[in-house]
Structure formats: C-alpha cells, structure tokens
Specification:
alpha/beta, Rossmann fold, Arc Repressor Mutant, subunit A, nine-stranded mixed beta sheet, globular
Length: about 375
C-alpha cells in the first residue's frame, strides 16, 4: 500500500474523492489524471458516464462525465459535462451550459453542441430539463417556462463552482424550444455573460398562438382553454398526468384532437408536410432516443398552461449589454422566431442565417451548423 500511496494523507484524499463521486448530493468530485477535484456546489455530483446512449458521433478525445445538480425548487437535474481536449484541472476555463430541443434529451442535439464547444476549449454541460430525460421531479413529461428557465441558472451554479471554471466567463445556449428559457435566464441572471440559440422556437408564442401567431382565432384559443380546463379536472380526479399535445390541434368544430399514440407516429404518413418529415427523420430515425418525449412519448395534457400564462423573452430588451447570437436556417420554418427576437433585442446582437439549412438540419448536420462561428462568438465574449 505504501508503494501506491506516498502518505496516509494522500490515501485518505483519494478514498474521499472516490466516495464523493458516488455519494450523490453530499458533494461533487471526479478523478482527473493525477488530481482529485471537488466542486464547491453542495447539492451536486459528478461520476463516470457508464451508460452511454448518445446518438451522435462521439469524439473519444473529449472526456464526458455524468453530473447532477439541484435547482432552487429542489429538483435534481441530470447532465453530461464535457471537458476540453488535454484537460488540465489547474487551468481556469470558460464554460457554457446547454439544453434543448424542447422534448429532447442531453444525448441528442444539446450533447452534440456541448461536445463541439468542448473541442474548441470550453467546459460544457448539456442537461435534461426538470421532469424530462434523467432529471427529477414528482411528475414527468411536464414543461414549465419558469422551471426550465431556472434549470439554466442552476446549471450556472454548478459549473461556476467547479475549481477549474472561471465564474466570470459563463455562457448559455438553447436549442429549438429551449432557446426562450436560455434567453430569459440570461436576461435576469447577470452571471451569464453571453447567450446563443440555434433553430429557435419561442414556445410561449408557439403554444399560445400555434404558428406565426395566426393559427388560433380568439374563438379557437378559448376552445383550447376549455379543453385544458377539462383535462385539469381529469388529471385531478385521476391523480396522475394524462398524455397530450403541447400545441393543441383543433378540428373543424373547434374540438381538440387527442393523441392516439406518441407525439410523432411510428410511420411517416404518406404526403406528410416538410416540417413533420424533418422532425420525423430526426426524432424517429437518425436521432431516436427512448427517453426523448419527441421520440417516444407525449407531454402532459396540461403542459400548455404555463406557456399560456407566461411570455418567455418578454424582457429581452434588458439582455443588453450582454450579447445575443441567433442561428437559424434560410429554409427553417422556425426562422421567424429568431427574426422576432432579433428585432426586439438591443446591441450587441448577431443573427446567422445558414444557407440551405432547414430547422432540423441545425440539430445535427455538421455541414450546416456553424460550430466554428459559435465557438468564436463565445471565445470573444467569455474572455
């Protein structure tokens, strides 16, 4: 034993670090080569990633750890932490926290973005929002604009208290429907020095207005409210959530169309529109993950309530002087969400419109996603 450990003190430190790595919320630690590192966040943990189910091409040069941290509502949030190539625990790194798309998990698009930013020198954490994926919550498959926004700040708590992260150089990024919570978090949590989005969806606008603000008439919106009221009675009587659509479709008689299976069908219907086809090809095929609601489940039927009640990005004008980068595609059906926010945001701001890219191309297509420009943006503002 003396040959393995130079002193009892060193042996004690190694044993302690190994214990902390598996103890959950009593502290956080992981063993980097030659170092035992403990996080300053009490309610967190870091361990080896043993059950790797990521759906994108993995770069073996980037270390990835399984992490958990607690938000201020006491919910345990699960994530993957990516460390830069040739990671040195004695250095101070800038860090970026990421989540999305809405209904996706960290093993999908957000993990890919996190890995690519780690390759460009950042410590990153891709996380599952509360009630989704491997994250906690008394219920599951429920969305909340407030709690999802809080999850970004909780992720900042976690990375900012890592000893190898500079807490003055922290950024956030949302993909698709998590763009709104990322921007909203950065608007008020001034610890976030820069924020970026890709393939933005403003879920408050999308859920309350359905599409570009012109799908629901006032009468249709009232019909949706009546449907939601009925579902609340049913869930209250049953004592559990009941699956439903986050964007409620209506028939010609203003009656809600109820789901008959998962959010997306197992087989693409003949003549499906390009938007449905794009989502299907990612979530049901190349990016399928069994824990993703978009791949294999439904939201709770009352999920729209939060987005009817609260307007994400309502105060985006207050984000300045912190910078905003919006990435969209010139063929993306969601492009108007980025354009609307860009018009309202103050300088510094930038929007990249990727030629030939549709919405789902920006989930995982290396030839379309401007990773170098994204990395340069965070390097500029997190220096």
């Amino acid at each position: 034993m003396k040959k393995l450990f130079r002193s009892r003190k060193m042996m004690k430190a190694v044993v302690l670090s190994m214990a902390l790595a598996v103890m959950g919320f009593s502290g956080a630690a992981f063993a980097a080569p030659g170092n035992a590192i403990v996080s300053g966040m009490k309610n967190s943990s870091v361990a080896e990633l043993t059950n790797d189910t990521r759906v994108f091409k993995i770069d073996k040069k980037i270390q990835t750890k399984m992490v958990h941290f607690q938000n201020r509502y006491g919910i345990k949030v699960a994530g993957h932490m990516y460390l830069p190539e040739n990671f040195d625990a004695n250095k101070k790194y800038a860090a970026v926290v990421l989540s999305g798309p809405f209904g996706a998990v960290k093993e999908q698009s957000s993990g890919l973005y996190a890995q690519e930013l780690a390759k460009r020198g950042f410590v990153t954490v891709a996380f599952d929002c509360s009630f989704t994926g491997e994250s906690g919550g008394e219920v599951h498959d429920v969305a909340s604009p407030d709690i999802f926004t809080e999850d970004f700040s909780a992720a900042i708590d976690f990375v900012g208290l890592l000893p190898f992260v500079d807490k003055e150089r922290l950024g956030a990024m949302g993909i698709c429907g998590l763009s709104g919570p990322a921007i909203t978090a950065a608007t008020n949590d001034v610890r976030i020095k820069a924020v970026a989005t890709s393939a933005m969806y403003d879920m408050s606008d999308s859920i309350r207005n359905h599409y570009a603000g012109d799908y629901y008439t006032p009468a249709q919106r009232e019909a949706v409210k009546s449907y939601l009221a009925g579902m609340r009675w049913q869930e209250a009587e049953k004592g559990t959530t009941i699956g439903g659509y986050h964007e409620v479709p209506l028939d010609a008689n203003n009656k809600a169309i109820l789901p008959t299976g998962t959010l997306l069908p197992d087989e693409l219907p003949a003549g499906a529109d390009p938007v449905t086809t794009g989502f299907f090809n990612y979530y049901k095929k190349r990016g399928f993950h069994p824990r993703a609601i978009n791949s294999n489940g439904l939201w709770s039927s009352t999920t729209p309530y939060g987005f009817f009640n609260f307007d994400l990005t309502a105060h985006v004008e207050e984000l300045s002087p912190r910078p905003l980068l919006l990435i969209t595609g010139d063929k993306a059906h969601s492009r108007y969400h980025s354009e609307n926010v860009f018009k309202r945001a103050q300088e510094p701001k930038e929007m990249i419109v990727v030629p030939g890219a549709d919405h789902c191309d920006l989930y995982d297509q290396f030839d379309k996603i401007p990773f170098d420009k994204l990395g340069a943006y965070f390097a500029k503002y997190l220096k």
